[in-house]
Design goal:
Layout (H helix, E strand, L loop, with lengths): L9 E11 L5 H5 L2 E10 L3 H6 L8 H14 L6 H15 L5 E8 L11 E8 L1
Antiparallel strand pairs: 1-2, 2-3, 3-4
Length: 127
């Protein structure tokens, strides 16, 4: 069994809303637009379940802060795929207990001539 499938436990972060300047079009790079991020962090949560101590789990506050920093203030990406991949790698780097992270990244106002709620990608990063 590989390490990324050893734990069915996960921390779920849903609906993190941020603004950033990511996209291919000039106006997307110049005018901030809304993004939404969901994260699934696969980690063994057994110790935290037993101890009830923050030190025994992944600090999702730190995860949210890092993701917010990258989406709102990090370097601009043209593609959602590139930004989502960076988010996944950065989250893995935060805590060695995270075995896998699934990043779902949505652009809430895509510059398209259609009535749609969002466009997005889902990228999985494994330690």
């Amino acid at each position: 069994m590989t390490s990324h499938t050893s734990s069915p436990d996960r921390i779920e972060i849903r609906g993190l809303r941020l603004v950033g300047t990511h996209g291919v079009l000039v106006e997307e790079k110049e005018r901030a637009q809304p993004f939404e991020v969901d994260l699934d962090l696969v980690a063994d949560l057994t110790a935290a379940g037993r101890s009830d101590q923050l030190l025994d789990t992944v600090d999702y506050g730190a995860v949210v802060a890092r993701v917010a920093e990258l989406v709102a203030g990090g370097p601009s990406h043209e593609l959602l795929e590139s930004l989502a991949r960076q988010l996944g790698q950065e989250v893995l780097a935060l805590d060695g207990r995270i075995e896998q992270v699934v990043v779902t990244l949505r652009k809430l106002r895509p510059p398209l001539p259609a009535d749609l709620a969002s466009v997005g990608v889902r990228v999985t990063s494994v330690r």
